[in-house]
Design brief:
Order of helices and strands of chain A: HEHHEEH
Largest sheet of chain A: 3 strands, antiparallel
Oligomer: heterodimer
Distance between the termini of chain B: 66 Å
Number of helices of chain A: 4
Strand content of chain A: 5-15%
Helix content of chain B: 40-55%
Largest sheet of chain B: 11 strands, mixed
Strand order of the largest sheet of chain A: 1-3-2
Number of strands of chain B: 24
Shape of chain A: elongated
Helix content of chain A: 55-70%
């Protein structure tokens, strides 16, 4: 089982925000999407999922809402807030810079 | 951006704080939902339900851990822990009601008393006077040397009004009393005759009607008056109804033009019910004085600039009036109004503040001891917690929170004690200025809070040190615990007890000194026998008694009528009443021993009397003669002096026939000494008994007191005196006061100081004794087994008791010795309150130390005796 620290610091937040940018989801679905989208490469522990979700909520980037779900019970759905959309743009940008920088370093040919 | 951010965050934080249950339930539900979905999916993929559930739980990594982590994201952890700690402390304190009650009461007493004194300090000394921009207000005096200030004359006031360049407004007041009639029975009320500038300078406004205007001051304008709210309510049925009505003051009808706001019956240190307009006419000479001048400095004008401005005026008017006023050094002089009102109140308030601070420190030391004993008793509990993994900082927080909780509880108790204490201030210190402003306001509560935090800090220091110092697992073993508990924590406890004794001693000494000084003051011979003597204050209205002749006729007729009343032994008129109504004080220059040029002339109480006064008061003639019918207003002025006066100014010389110049009037006829009488104190019992008597016939006085000596039954005689009085003038108010009351009242201040300090000292001794009692009881419990062994081996009960008492008294002695040093440092500021007692008085020193040590001895003896009664077998076999 991989630990959240194995992910680059703050990457989990970015992933969650990105997933929620498509449509509001409940916590379990967010975990499933994560696995699918990363073709099972990113094994995010469900153990770090909820603390991350609640942290994002406390920061005001996502908001939660109780809605009736398909099994006729209510479930907590998270959606992106306006602040969250801005935060996503910022984090995407910084991720892009970071990955470019790392790729550039990795591409260097040894002589 | 930041604001928008918080708009999202804040409601969530508040929700998790105040709707914790709801938030927790939602978390529960969310995690359960997750598990169910996960299990369902795993079953769909082919796992058995039991297997699926297990796998799902493992994947989630423990529901409770998840919850804890989620809770951490709320950012309220420290707060939640704090609340939990407080709850825990309250539970722990409830389990120990005796300890809790003692600690809360002791600390509450200290906090409450110091808060009460703080509110007094705050209202009297720290806060602004209750006038707009009060820093610009000054009072103007005449001054001819450091410390010698007096009031203004009409000449001064008119010169200031015409020439000054420093004030936005300037006004004067003359404080006196007048008989008020036209509203109920005639009564004597305090009045402040003021010019319009007085109200303008202070910046006060009317609650109803208007205040005075410059046209009211001009001579010949209709007589108008502004009333205090209280008088308008009492006599005229309310503030609104009073305006336009008229009241009679000293026989003159005044129209009420306005009423001051409630609580404004004191303005600039003058307490009065009625404020009539003062109309000043151009005077024929420089004096008399008696007007208080008040000014509001222009913005930006310093008090030094005003001083130069006023000095210039003094110099310009001096030559014009030189014939009636020869003191060339006298200057008009401004003093900040605040200074004149607070005066020496800071001394008495400082005195209380010092005493109360000592009591608070002793209370803190006491609770500190209690807390240490308690922590030591919890040693085992704390060891178990430590062994189970509680980190030392966590344990420290537990102890600190307990101290804080205790201090907060004590703060709540202190609030009640402070409120009660503030309501007592009026009766303890009736002469305190600005009393109406003293109250338990936000600042006082803030002070209480800070003091509580401060005491929590002090109280928690040593238990904290104890917790942090202890080894981790050392003391689970009972024996190790007993041997180890730490010599150092015992030392800290002993230090607390020593501090308590050291702080209690100065209080005890102070109260001993005050008590001795008070007893000495009571021994002073006032110079008269007050039994059966009563007095009536009388002020003759100018309207009906316009000149010296009519006034003198009234005084003579009154004495004649009262003399005839059965039961009256002697009666007379006087302008001063002993022991502390100085009346007039006059300066004089001895013809035989004139003062050097440019130095101040001596002054003495100057009392105008009729001959009957000496008999009525019981003052004996020592030498020469009293006054005769020949000493009339047109005869050469004569005086009779007291023995102390004669001894001071003519030591070893014959005093009869000596002459002096009265009041600096070089053109007046010389005054001759014709007699010497016994000493009477006019300026308080603690001052010297010099006095000069002049015949009433030569004074033309307007107000004085009728003094009547009865044959021992004033209650039966005075109604007849009153009938004679009213027959002579039915409009004058009549209120009789026994002279013994005046004598008692003059001792009231020293009595109060003594009572308050004795109360504080009593509390301090009690706390110190409690402290050492607690400590020695603890020592006995701690050494129970060892003492049991000693007794089993044949130690005598007496020897056991002695062992405990000797140990305890070591601390008491050490504390008392340190206390003596502290007292020596601090006693010099008691000196000004003492009368014929040196601050190093050996009786007071020995007495104070003795009382403290005796209390300490008793407090050690009780646990010592308990130690002697320990049953050897029981003590050795338990534990």
């Amino acid at each position: 089982m991989s630990k959240p620290t194995d992910l680059v610091q703050g990457t989990l937040d970015l992933l969650i925000l990105k997933i929620l940018a498509f449509e509001p989801q409940n916590g379990w679905a967010v975990g499933q999407r994560l696995k699918q989208l990363s073709s099972d490469v990113l094994q995010v522990s469900e153990g770090s999922l909820y603390p991350a979700l609640h942290k994002l909520e406390q920061e005001g980037w996502i908001s939660a809402e109780w809605r009736p779900s398909e099994n006729n019970r209510r479930a907590k759905f998270y959606s992106l807030t306006r602040l969250g959309r801005r935060q996503l743009a910022r984090e995407t940008e910084s991720w892009r810079r970071l990955s470019h920088a790392i790729s550039a370093v990795v591409r260097l040919r040894e002589v | 951006m930041r604001l928008e951010h918080w708009l999202y965050k804040l409601p969530l934080r508040l929700r998790s704080l105040f709707h914790r249950g709801e938030v927790e339930n939602e978390l529960d539900e969310e995690l359960r939902d997750h598990l169910e979905r996960d299990i369902a999916q795993r079953v769909r993929l082919g796992a058995s339900p039991a297997e699926a559930e297990r796998a799902a739980r493992i994947a989630l990594g423990g529901v409770e851990q998840q919850k804890e982590e989620v809770r951490d994201t709320r950012g309220l952890r420290p707060l939640e822990n704090f609340v939990a700690d407080i709850r825990y402390s309250l539970r722990a304190l409830r389990r120990n009601p005796g300890f809790t009650a003692a600690a809360v009461l002791v600390l509450g007493l200290g906090l409450g008393a110091s808060t009460a004194v703080f509110s007094v300090l705050d209202a009297v000394l720290f806060s602004e006077l209750p006038y707009p921009d009060a820093a610009r207000l000054v009072r103007v005096y005449q001054k001819n040397g450091p410390g010698n200030f007096w009031t203004l004359s009409v000449v001064d006031v008119q010169a200031i009004a015409e020439q000054q360049r420093s004030f936005d407004a300037f006004g004067v007041a003359r404080w006196s009393s007048a008989s008020l009639s036209g509203a109920g029975a005639p009564e004597q009320v305090a009045i402040g005759g003021v010019t319009a500038g007085f109200f303008t300078a202070l910046g006060v406004t009317a609650a109803e009607g208007r205040l005075l205007e410059p046209r009211d001051d001009t001579p010949g304008a209709p007589a108008v008056v502004v009333l205090s709210h209280a008088l308008a309510e009492r006599a005229l049925g309310g503030a609104a109804k009073a305006v336009g009505r008229s009241v009679t003051l000293d026989g003159v009808s005044h129209t009420v033009v306005g009423v001051l706001p409630p609580k404004r019956n004191e303005l600039a240190g003058i307490t009065a019910d009625a404020w009539p307009a003062l109309q000043l006419t151009r005077p024929p000479r420089r004096g008399p004085f008696g007007l208080r001048g008040y000014g509001r400095l222009k913005p930006g004008v310093s008090i030094e600039a005003a001083e130069r401005d006023l000095a210039g005026i003094s110099e310009r008017i001096f030559p014009i009036w030189a014939s009636s006023f020869q003191d060339k050094t006298a200057r008009l002089f401004p003093v900040s109004l605040r200074t004149t009102i607070i005066g020496n109140a800071d001394r008495s308030v400082g005195f209380f503040a010092g005493a109360v601070a000592l009591v608070l420190l002793i209370a803190i030391a006491n609770v500190g001891t209690l807390m240490l004993v308690r922590t030591s008793e919890r040693e085992q509990e704390l060891s178990v917690r430590a062994a189970l993994g509680a980190a030392r900082p966590r344990l420290a927080r537990l102890v600190a929170t307990e101290c804080l909780t205790l201090a907060l509880l004590a703060g709540v108790a202190g609030l009640g004690i402070a409120a009660a204490g503030i309501s007592l201030v009026g009766s303890f210190a009736p002469n305190l200025p600005r009393q109406a402003e003293v109250g338990l306001d936000a600042r006082a509560v803030g002070f209480l809070g800070l003091a509580a935090l401060f005491s929590a800090l002090l109280v928690s220091l040593s238990p904290l040190a104890q917790v942090l110092r202890r080894g981790t697992a050392a003391s689970l073993v009972p024996d190790a615990r007993r041997a180890g508990t730490s010599r150092s924590s015992n030392r800290t406890r002993a230090a607390f007890v020593i501090v308590e004794f050291a702080l209690a001693l100065p209080l005890l000494l102070g109260s001993g000194l005050l008590l001795k000084s008070f007893l000495q003051l009571q021994q002073v011979d006032p110079g008269f026998n007050p039994e059966g003597v009563g007095s009536v204050d009388i002020g003759l209205p100018v309207a009906r008694y316009p000149n010296d002749t009519t006034r003198l006729r009234f005084w003579e007729q009154l004495v004649e009528r009262v003399q005839r009343v059965p039961g009256v032994v002697a009666t007379g008129i006087t302008t001063s009443l002993p022991p502390d109504n100085g009346g007039d004080v006059n300066n004089f220059d001895l013809v035989a021993h004139p003062v050097a040029d440019g130095t101040n002339q001596p002054v003495a109480p100057w009392v105008w009397v009729t001959n009957g006064f000496f008999d009525a008061l019981g003052v004996e003639l020592v030498d020469g003669r009293l006054f005769t019918i020949a000493d009339s207003g047109s005869a050469p002025p004569v005086i009779v002096v007291s023995r102390a006066w004669a001894a001071r100014y003519f030591p070893g010389e014959p005093v009869l026939g000596q002459q002096l110049i009265e009041g600096g009037c070089t053109s007046c006829p010389r005054t001759t000494v014709v007699g010497v009488v016994g000493d009477v104190h006019y300026l308080g019992l603690e001052t010297r008994a010099e006095g000069v008597y002049a015949p009433l016939a030569q004074g033309g006085i307007r107000s004085g007191a009728l003094l009547v000596r009865t044959n021992g039954a004033p209650g039966r005689v005075f109604p007849a005196v009153r009938a004679q009085f009213s027959a002579l003038d039915p409009e004058l108010p009549f209120a009789q006061e026994p002279l013994s009351d005046r004598l008692d009242a003059s001792l009231a201040d020293p009595r109060r100081y003594t009572a308050v300090l004795s109360a504080f000292a009593g509390v301090a001794v009690l706390l110190a004794a409690l402290g050492i009692f607690g400590l020695m009881s603890y020592v006995v419990r701690q050494r129970r087994r060892e003492i049991g062994v000693r007794i089993a081996l044949g130690a005598q009960p007496k020897a056991v008791t002695r062992m405990i008492v000797v140990r305890g008294m070591r601390y008491a002695l050490a504390g008392t010795a340190i206390g003596l040093v502290l007292a020596a440092l601090q006693m010099r500021w008691l000196r000004s309150m003492l009368f014929q007692v040196a601050p190093t008085d050996p009786v007071a020193l020995a007495g104070g130390a003795g009382v403290l040590l005796l209390a300490g001895f008793l407090a050690c003896w009780l646990p010592g005796r308990r130690a002697a009664r320990i049953k050897a077998l029981e003590a050795i076999s338990t534990e």
